[in-house]
Amino acid sequence: MRYSVNEWTKSGSPWVWLNAGAVAICVIMVVGLLGLIAVRGLAHFWPADVMQATYTQGEQSRRILGEMVQDEMVPAEQLRGAGIQVPEGVEALRRDLLKVGNRDFLPADFVWAMDNMITERSHPEMVMVAERLEWGNFYGYLREIREAGETLARHDGYAKSEEYLNVWAEFQTRLERVLEIRDQILEIEKDKIGSINYEIERLRLQERSLELEQSTDAQAYADIEARRAELNADYEVLQQDLIDLYSQINRDSFTAEIADGREVEIRLSKVVRAFLPNNMGTGDKLMHYGAKLWEFLSDEPREANTEGGIFPAIFGTVMMVILMSVLVTPFGVIAAVYLREYAKQGFVTRLIRIAVNNLAGVPSIVYGVFGLGFFVYFLGGTIDDLFFPEAKPSPTFGTGGLMWASITLALLTVPVVIVATEEGLARIPRSVREGSLALGATKFETLIKVVLPMASPAMMTGVILAIARAAGEVAPLMLVGVVKLAPSLPLDGNYPFLHLDQKFMHLGFHIYDVGFQSPNVEAARPLVYATAFLLVVVIALLNFSAIAIRNHLREKYKALEM
């Protein structure tokens, strides 16, 4: 028996099984982590039922309306220390976290309540949930609809009835009208007035440039003034349209009864959507879930990034990675080709390789500090002095922006591309190069038509791995261009269309901001999970793409290797 065990050990089988077990554990942990993040994040968009109950604490009782968010067991000793009576023999009691909303009318929109103190639980069909532009969700019973302060329809009951359905239908009709007007307002404010303001600013800079040059060209000044007058006239027309639209959108309002019995009035212009979660079937909830998920992916954030969507962060992340890849690919490949194919293999070359490998291990925040000092302050300030003196003292490129963030990440990831490309070049047999040269090709032709195509799997793998790393970096971006909120995209219809000097949002920084800087932690927590899941999925897709591209190129050039 001892002999067979020794033979089995010498054969290497234990290490194979050990490696297989380690890989299996890693896969299970990764899948489990993704599953946890997905469940915690994506479940937030599901329209949960709203509970009505009576909460009794001591001699005081009050009605509560809200969604059950989570529950936990609390030790009895901790409860007794907080002055809560706990029956003898009980080791722990459950407490529930309820989202009661109505942050503008109640002390807090999330409350902890002891489960044994909650009685008379029910889920009334008439409970309304209204998502708002400000103050978060509203929970209550719809009472009346008003137009310019006059009551158009009212319902005072708590049971579902035909009268209530008529009031609800009128509410939805007027809400649709308000949403259409809001879209018109956004189109005027962001697109039309935004374009006018952008062009007026360009005229101001042109005029300032003429002043700095001490130009006496009266016609140039006259043309600028004439164009400014045209833009101001267009602005006045749009401003009047906005006044009319705002008077229309602020016309309608509704009153609702909240949990403590008060009736409050809310303008419909503050509502994003309203629904009756306890009266929705599975199909309706699925449609609502799809609409919320699409809003998360395509809309702008609101309420300190705890509501709305993250499209500016998605767009900023993708745009930055694209620019970074465009910058890092030629520099990384050219450096690797020079070191492997042209440089004399001696002490200096080995020293450069050591330096490149060490750069790959430098903390990313160091690159951020370097980018801030060299790219932003030195290069950006120099560019402003040479090309944008009319904009000073306001910096153009002398402040953080999309270009400097992309260059900083390109500098951070270029060692990955260099090392991967060099390894790919080193695996190409020398006989392939010699055969090409023997057939009359020059060294450059051999490099372009033979060596680089055969090394392309390693090159592409290095580039995409660099992209995957850059997509998740946060620390350097905090110094060179990423901000908490930048709803204006760096790519728009205003010349020069791609604004490299503009600040932008990033998924990684969005996670940090919502998770650690939000004033409402409980409201922000689900969005942290959802955004983290989205970022992990993006990075995972990039890695899977690297494997697929590498395998495709490897199969394509397998004949050359043979």
From TrEMBL:
Q: What is its main location?
A: membrane
Where would you find the membrane-spanning parts of this chain? 16-39, 310-339, 359-383, 403-426, 447-468, 527-549
**Domain of life of the organism encoding this protein:** Bacteria
Coiled coil regions in record: 221-248
Q: What topology does the record note for this protein and the membrane? A: Multi-pass membrane protein
Q: Which residues form the ABC transmembrane type-1 domain?
A: 314-546
- Compartments it resides in: Cell inner membrane; Cell membrane
Q: Which PROSITE patterns match?
A: ABC_TM1
Provide the family line.
Belongs to the binding-protein-dependent transport system permease family. CysTW subfamily.
Give the PANTHER family listed for this entry. PHOSPHATE TRANSPORT SYSTEM PERMEASE PROTEIN PSTA (PTHR43470:SF6), PHOSPHATE TRANSPORT SYSTEM PERMEASE PROTEIN PSTA-RELATED (PTHR43470)
Recorded protein name is Phosphate transport system permease protein PstA
Q: Which organism is it from?
A: Marinobacterium weihaiense
> What gene name does this entry carry?
pstA
